[in-house]
Design brief:
Elements lengths: L2 E9 L2 H6 L3 H15 L1 E10 L12 H13 L3 E3 L9 H8 L5 E3 L8 H31 L7 H34 L5 H10 L12 H10 L1
Parallel strand pairs: 1-2, 1-3, 3-4
Length: 222
């Protein structure tokens, strides 16, 4: 007998919601995961709302409805990726207080609440690093005499963001052949690929150990 689960899918803008951009990809990922794990999607809740802020749950009635449905059915709720919940650690902590088990398809069925907190912390750290690099670039521009509010400032900001993105893209391109080599051995899950990379002594762009979230980020870039 298959176990029921409650699916939650979210996009961040009304434009994405109207176009369906991102929704079908999430649904497809959840369907594949449910089939592989012998789970049955008993209900689906769709949200068009930002994921920013620790209080974001107050602005997400469909997430609240998904939690209520999961409690009623006494089953887990599921999302395709952690960022469909939030990248905010405090938000994830608050979500765990609802006592509804959450499955993140990207991370696997056995990622417990501690692991969700850890992955959220890594994602939050990555976002903060990008923001810090952008602020540093703006300060450097100001030191060179670029006046705040000057149209040139927006160009500086865009170049700073583009530089960070280009660095990430270059690293992804370099690491992709190693990941494909790992996949060729039959390892398909992001977690398994992360373990293989760590076992081979391959470091992340910042010199640390790999996680499933980081592997997923690389694969989305290549």
């Amino acid at each position: 007998m298959t176990q029921p689960i409650v699916a939650y899918v979210r996009v961040s803008t009304s434009r994405q919601g109207r176009s369906g951009l991102g929704l079908e990809a999430q649904r497809a990922a959840l369907a594949r995961f449910a089939e592989a794990e012998e789970l049955e999607i008993a209900a689906e809740f769709v949200e068009v709302e930002t994921g920013t802020g620790a209080d974001a749950i107050d602005r997400r009635p469909q997430l609240a409805a998904a939690l209520a449905e999961a409690r009623k059915r006494k089953c887990p709720a599921i999302v395709a990726k952690l960022d469909r919940l939030s990248r905010d650690v405090h938000f994830i902590s608050g979500l765990m207080a609802h006592k509804v088990p959450f499955i993140v398809a990207e991370l696997g069925a056995d990622a417990d609440p501690f692991m969700l907190h850890l992955y959220a912390a890594l994602a939050e750290k990555e976002r903060n690093l990008i923001a810090q690099r952008t602020r540093d670039a703006l300060r450097a521009a100001k030191a060179r005499g670029v006046v705040l509010g000057n149209p040139k400032l927006a160009d500086v900001r865009n170049r700073a963001v583009a530089t960070v993105k280009a660095e990430a893209d270059r690293f992804a391109k370099n690491i992709a052949p190693i990941i494909r080599e790992v996949q060729a051995t039959g390892v398909s899950s992001h977690r398994g690929i992360a373990r293989s990379l760590n076992a081979r002594g391959v470091a992340t762009a910042r010199g640390g150990a790999w996680t499933a979230v980081q592997v997923g980020s690389i694969l989305r870039r290549v």
